[in-house]
Design a protein that fits this description.
Elements (H helix, E strand, L loop, with lengths): L1 H13 L1 E4 L14 E4 L14 E4 L8 E7 L4 E5 L2 E4 L2 E3 L14 E4 L4 E5 L11 H4 L2 E2 L3 E8 L2
Antiparallel strand pairs: 1-2, 2-11, 3-4, 3-11, 4-9, 5-6, 5-8, 6-7, 9-10
């Protein structure tokens, strides 16, 4: 009981340090980079577009770092090498390499769902909403609030 108290207190005050274990967020976060995230931050606020977050994808026993690109109630598409939200192109200054123009993905986010993608969209074997679809809000653990190296 006391250990849980101290863990909750330190997470609330200091956040949690994570190490990025894949290349899905390059160039924003390289493999091996360390960052701080705050698991309780979204208790009082809603996630925003382009927040970098730690997520628990469905059906796997791990946490990943991704970027929120679609918010509840939005139609999100990848087509013509661009990100489209509700029929409008959205600029993504954090993406280093353009997406292939032949990609075609579309999602309708429900009332409590978010679309998340890695910044390194063309990396092989990367899992994000292209593989598992919209994420329930409960699968978002918290926002990354600081790069540590």
């Amino acid at each position: 009981m006391l250990n849980r108290f101290w863990r909750n207190l330190t997470e609330s005050a200091f956040g949690v340090v994570i190490t990025v274990t894949n290349i899905s967020m390059e160039p924003t976060f390289s493999e091996g980079a360390r960052a701080k995230f705050e698991p309780r931050r979204y208790r009082n606020t809603e996630p925003r577009r382009f927040d970098v977050v730690v997520v628990r994808p469905p059906g796997v026993d791990r946490e990943d770092i991704k970027r929120i690109v679609g918010l509840p109630g939005e139609l999100v598409e990848i087509r013509d090498g661009k990100l489209w939200i509700d029929g409008e192109v959205v600029e993504e200054p954090h993406i280093a390499d353009p997406m292939p123009s032949n990609w075609l993905h579309a999602w309708g986010a429900g009332d409590y769902e978010y679309i998340v993608l890695g910044d390194n969209r063309a990396a092989p074997g990367i899992t994000d909403s292209r593989r598992y679809g919209p994420l329930d809000a409960d699968a978002i653990v918290g926002p990354v609030t600081r790069r540590l190296n």
